[in-house]
Write a structure and sequence with these properties.
By secondary structure, the protein is an all-alpha fold. The protein has a domain of about 25 residues. It is built from one helix and no strands. The protein is flat. The termini are far apart.
Amino acid sequence: MKRQFESPQPSLFEEGEPSVVLTRAQEIELTMLVETLLREIAMALANGGIADEQDHS
């Protein structure tokens, strides 16, 4: 018989109250940060991929 272990981490899609409550200012700042990161990723991909910025010599 297989044992089923309870995961200490909640599921990504688990319903329930958020474990961290952000203020409105924090939500706005986080939204701007995510949008900026997504734009940078999209620009890097549009320009032919992400180059290795570190010199491994």
